[in-house]
Amino acid sequence: MNNKSLIPMPDLNLDDIVHLSKENEKLIVNFLSTSDELHTINQFYHVYIFNFCQIFYHFELDTNDNIRKQNGLNGDEFIIINSLLINLMSSYLSL
Fold first, then answer.
1. d(Cα 78, Cα 67) in Å, to the nearest integer?
2. Tell me, what's the pLDDT at 48?
3. Which of 11-15, 16-20, 53-57 ranks highest by mean pLDDT?
């Protein structure tokens, strides 16, 4: 996931930079790293939820193992449902 950006700050005054102790610097770096990891996990979770919802949008699943295509996608039902399930499993494994 691309969740890192650089924002140019042309009006930055280097004299205004606060100098931290090594301990505080390490604490902030660890916090940012953990925050980045949580953000990435959250994005993967939303990808998983999207893929899960796609199955139930495009297919009606009965309790007696009947599957009926209902919305949108054209093509062989077997290929479509397998493609959606593979997407769901892949997004789950990314978590």
1. 10
2. 92
3. 53-57
Nearest Cα residue to 40 out of 72, 2, 66: 2
Instruction: Look at residue 91 and tell me whether its pLDDT is greater than 90.
Output: no
Q: How many residues does the chain have?
A: 95
Q: Are 35 and 27 in contact (CB under 8 A)?
A: no
List the beta bridge partners of residue 60. 68
The residue type found at 61 is L
For residue 84, what are the CA distances in angstroms to 47, 75, 93? 12, 13, 14
59 DSSP β-pair partners: 69
pTM: 0.68
DSSP state of 11: T
